[in-house]
Write a structure and sequence with these properties.
By secondary structure, the chain is mainly α. The chain has one domain (26-186). It has 3 helices and no strands. The longest helix is centred in the middle third of the chain and has 133 residues, at 29-161. It is rod-shaped, with a radius of gyration of 67 Å.
Length: 200
């Protein structure tokens, strides 16, 4: 078809040259024909070989751009999912921290109460132990005092009576009687001293 057009163009040029004078600005007919043939050959080669390569390069670049856009969208969606997961984990961590803090406060109160109870129990044991020790020492002092007072009373009674109280039974009776009289006089003295203070 192209060759038919070329042939028709060549015939019209030849016919025009026969009827008209030659224009100095127009090239010769054979130059026009050969130029057209060369343009057609270059166009054919370009369409057959160069244009598909350009089209392949452009398609490849389009695919890369579209793939990059899809990859960017996927990365953006993954980043949004990771951010949501991170925010959820952060909220859970804050909730857990608050729960642990409350548990620590409650446990701290229990520990303080336990420590107070232990301290109170320890103080009660210490007071009880001190009272037992004081009672034991008082009884020991009373026994020791009774023995000393008995010995002094026996010696004093021996001097007053003028006879020896070496008999232990007699000595024990004298000591007991002396201590009973001593206790009775102590009680009456205390009663007499508290009576005026009550009247006042």
């Amino acid at each position: 078809m192209i060759t038919a057009h070329l042939a028709a163009a060549a015939q019209s040029v030849v016919a025009a040259t026969d009827t008209e004078e030659l224009n100095p600005l127009l090239p010769e007919v054979y130059d026009i024909i050969w130029s057209l043939v060369i343009v057609v050959i270059i166009f054919f080669v370009f369409m057959k070989y160069a244009l598909p390569k350009f089209q392949a390069v452009l398609d490849e670049r389009t695919e890369k751009i579209e793939g990059g856009l899809q990859h960017a969208e996927a990365a953006q969606a993954e980043a949004a999912a990771l951010r949501a997961e991170y925010e959820q984990q952060l909220a859970e961590a804050r909730t857990e921290a608050a729960r642990i803090k409350e548990a620590a406060r409650a446990e701290g109160g229990v520990i303080v109460a336990e420590a107070k109870a232990k301290a109170t129990a320890e103080a009660a044991r210490t007071v009880e132990s001190a009272q037992r020790t004081i009672e034991a020492e008082r009884q020991q002092a009373a026994v020791s005092l009774r023995a000393d007072v008995g010995a002094l009373a026996t010696e004093l009674a021996s001097k007053i009576v003028g006879e020896s109280l070496e008999d232990t039974a007699r000595q024990s009776r004298v000591v007991d009687r002396f201590l009973a009289e001593l206790e009775a006089s102590t009680v009456s003295t205390q009663a007499a001293s508290t009576a005026p203070s009550k009247e006042n």
